[in-house]
Amino acid sequence: MAFSELLDLVGGLGRFQILQMVALVVPIMWLTTQSMLENFSAAVPNHRCWVPLLDNSTDQASVPGTLSLKDLLTVSIPLGPNHEPHQCLRFRQPQWQLLDPNATATNWSEAATEPCVDGWVYDNSTFTSTIVAKWDLVCDSHALKPMAQSIYLSGMLVGAAVCGRASDRFGRRLVLTWNYLQMAMSGTVAAFAPTFPVYCLFRFLVAFAVAGVMMNTGTLLIEWTSTRARALAMTLNTLGFSFGQVLMATVAYGVRDWALLQLVISVPFFLCFVYSWWLAESARWLLITGRLEQGLRELRRVAAINGKGAVEDSLTTEVLLSAMQEELSAGQAPSSLNALFCMPRLGLRTCISTLCWFAFGFTFYGLALDLQALGSNIFLLQALIGVVDIPAKIGTLLLLSRLGRRPTQAVSLVLSGLCILANTLVPYEMGALRSALAVLGLAGLGAAFTCISIFTG
Q: N or C: which end of the chain has fewer CB within 10 A?
């Protein structure tokens, strides 16, 4: 008898697994909002230089009353490449000659312009506040916005490396509980960050915790679910990310201030931290690490919740020792990265899985973290990504039982690649088609995410 048979005895798909699924997948929904946050909190609003004629009441008083705001804009701000007011330059002195009906854009020279030395004026019609407007991440500082996203993704990378080892040493539930608290505290502090570097630091810590929650949620689901139901459990887990996309669009539509939005999506993790103390630790991890009494208590607890009273009474330390001899001996050997490459087939599978994860992560975050480049209505786009993702993942679960994992994985990745390649051929003016191809490509990536989660789980 192995652990999988012990799990079948206490119930590998019962009331406990349903309660655990709800308790673990709801935080996944909120976690998704952390990753998608900067589509809204770091959205770049329309902006122009601050100029006295338009923004200083004293200078405005000296302007003849016959001049409209459009006229004042014409003499104060040069036209940009898209024939709209330039976002990063202004005239040193008002160019009154441009009000002449016969004047053209050549009636001024580059020497007559200067950068926005007095700051910018932002359009607050869509968002009342963003980090771009708060810290002027535009013009010469425009590269700081993607740098914030890179720092966030770096936090996920470091978090995955650290939390994976930590969960093997300290337990899945304990690390998960800590990650909930870290995400809640770091996200809350980020909402009150006084400077951009401080904001980036706490977003790094949020991402660190995000990676830990993702990894340990999947591990707990797999280790408490029977083998025959693991594909269903992992699919439901990935659906949490899809619903999270829709949740992000909904919350961002209602909360247009970046700091309040950061606060709204962070505070719920304090509740997750509180109830996570009642989650069951992985009995398999407890038994493998020699914590037999604790493992026995967890198995009896699960048996009681699943209505397996007779099994609960028959579980003893002797039964566990006889059932887990092989796994207990394997657990004594120190784990290392080299163990994955000791056997050629396992090493090849590890390399291919890593490549699939890279393809998914590189493409998904490249598209999903720059919604402003895909269309004007980022709220609708964000919601569509989640809505289209749901049938794609459900369809993937159905295809897995018919086509198998490898064909489904390959088809989903190829479909995503074709949509993205086709998007590069579509003119920028055809915004609706570009958005549709991007959403379809992201749906394919959602299917690929489901496959690789099941494959590596």
A: N
173, two tokens: 């539930």
Tens digits of per-residue pLDDT, 5-52? Answer: 888 888 888 899 999 999 999 999 999 999 999 999 999 999 889 888
- The sign one gets for the Cα dihedral 66, 71, 73, 77 is negative
pTM of the model: 0.89
- At residue 175, what are phi and psi to the nearest 5 degrees? -65, -40
pLDDT(309) > 80? no
Instruction: Please state, in angstroms and rounded to a whole number, the distance separating the CA atoms of residues 413 and 146.
Output: 26
Alpha helices in 306-375 (DSSP H): 309-314, 317-323, 325-332, 344-368
Q: Which residues of 433-455 are buried (b: 16+ CB within 10 A; e: fewer)?
A: ebbbbbbbbbbbbbbbbbbbbbb
Q: Which residues pair with 48 in a beta bridge?
A: 121
The secondary structure element, H or E, covering residue 185 is: helix 172-191
Our measurement of the distance from residue 332's CA atom to the centroid of its chain's CA atoms, rounded to an integer in Å, reads: 36
232 Rama sector, left if φ>0, alpha if ψ -120 to 50, beta otherwise:
alpha
Q: How many CB atoms lie within 10 A of CB 4?
A: 13
Give the amino acid at 88: C
Query: Residue 67: is it exposed, middle or buried by C-beta count within 10 angstroms (0-12/13-18/19+)?
Result: middle
Bridge partners, 436 (sequence order): none
Please give the pLDDT value at position 147.
93
Cα–Cα distance, 227 to 215 (Å, whole number)? 19
Q: Name the residue with tokens 């991007």.
A: 438
User: Which token pair is 343?
Assistant: 């056997």
Q: What value does the CA radius of gyration of the chain take, rounded to a whole number of Å?
A: 27
pLDDT at 2 over 80: no
